[in-house]
Design brief:
The structure holds 2 protein chains of 2 kinds. Chain A has no helices and 11 strands. By secondary structure, chain B is mainly β. In chain B, strands 2, 5, 6, 10, 11 and 12 form a 6-stranded mixed sheet that branches. Classes of the chains: A mainly beta, B mainly beta. At the A-B interface, β4, β5, β9 and β10 of A face β5, β6, β10 and β11 of B.
């Protein structure tokens, strides 16, 4: 089975722009979660999607949004980029996301640099 | 909300020495705990997870972790460090009333000295 894939792997944007990141989960997985990883804040949960619906949300401003398509692929959008949005954005998928013991499988991440 | 604390942001061990990475959790209910490893410029890879089936959990690459409820700990160990173990290690707890949400520790960077 192919793993979680994320595109693009690297991205450079300028302040004020918007960006869309894509994540394809493992085949058959219906839950997709997004995390932001920075040296200062570590790994922080952004949101989780299941069956095209946002099911959990972390503590991030409304500039961060996402969606999930019927094939479980997910996109994350950040509008009005700020310098502090520079980070590694990780996507993770799990089978149903309803069982707490389920493993989340992570993609390689998209490294976003905001200038 | 649950949380995890990783003591020691940087740990250095000699090749062949014992690796011990500490993780403590706070939870009022039985937790589900995970250890992940991250190599440079890569995503996170699952090492092992605790799901209440057994307190001593064996993972990949010779790592294991023991769940100690009395100490609220889930420390990661490996008897003999290898150069390839140099990476960032994250402890995580799973929580979510309507879907799992992972809370990660701040990570421990492991350096292996030849």
């Amino acid at each position: 089975k192919a793993g979680v894939t994320q595109t693009p792997r690297y991205l450079i944007k300028t302040r004020g722009q918007q960006v869309t990141l894509s994540c394809s989960p493992i085949s058959g997985h219906r839950s997709v979660s997004w995390y932001q990883q920075t040296p200062g804040q570590g790994l922080q949960f952004l949101f989780e999607y299941f069956s095209e619906t946002q099911r959990n949300k972390g503590n991030f401003p409304g500039r961060f949004s996402g969606r999930q398509f019927s094939n479980s692929r997910s996109e994350m959008n950040v509008s009005t980029l700020e310098l502090g949005d520079s980070a590694l954005y990780l996507c993770a998928s799990s089978s149903s996301g309803t069982a707490l013991q389920e493993t989340q499988y992570f993609g390689p991440g998209t490294r976003l640099l905001v200038l | 909300a649950q949380s995890v604390t990783q003591l020691g942001s940087h740990v250095s061990v000699s090749e062949g020495a014992l690796v011990l990475l500490r993780c403590n959790y706070s939870s009022s209910v039985p937790p589900y705990l995970f250890w992940y490893v991250q190599y440079p410029n890569q995503g996170l890879q699952l090492l092992l997870k605790y799901t209440s089936a057994a307190t001593l959990v064996k993972g990949i690459n010779g790592f294991e972790a023991e769940f100690k409820k009395s100490e609220t700990s889930f420390h990661l160990t490996k008897p003999s460090a290898h150069m390839s173990d140099a990476a960032e290690y994250f402890c995580a707890v799973s929580e979510g009333r309507t879907g799992n949400q992972f809370y990660f520790g701040t990570g421990t960077s492991l350096t292996v000295i030849p």
